[in-house]
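yo, Amino acid ABC transporter permease is done. seq:
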Amino acid sequence: MNVLTDNLSRYGEGLLGTVELTVYASLLALALGFLMAAFRVAPVASLRAFGTAWVTVLRNTPLTLLFFAVVLGLPRFGVALPFQLFAVLALGCYTSAFICEAVRSGINTVPVGQGEAARSLGMTFRQTLGTIVLPQAFRSVIPPIGSTLIALAKNSAIAGSFSVTELLGTYKTLNELGYSIIWTFVWIALGYLIVTLTISAVFNVLEKRWGVAR
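structure:
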């Protein structure tokens, strides 16, 4: 127990770093994911090609490699940002590919006739997607999006290897101070459990309120 009580501030700082990474990267992932899903079903071929390329590249690229590309690659092009922002970009972009596919699967559950009816009434593609298709698709993809964001929270542990303050990185300092590595990881695991259970609880509420009845 003294591992936690003696280093409560370190654990708190790491937990806060993980929460911030998770929140900011989740917002970016959701925004990009919905946008790429719209691109993938757009009537414009170039947008469909861009969305497909985005998903294909990011889903098949290891997250650690993407971190290296963002943290080490972007500065070579004159992009100088805090390491935490680099981590948010890497996590958000990577996760957006999975959000995109979840949303696209939800879009495919909406009957085609509803889109055709909307177009027959003179609605544009943007209006049809925003007011008819996406609201219905979202209801069916709440559980997979929740699971994807839980995975994002756990993936944020990689950021600690790139000078970003997060929960897993606290073990390095505590190990150097001579604390039990087993109990160090027990409290780290508990911290991640708190984050993931919170996300799960939020999406359980969303599913009960807006989810599709099975």
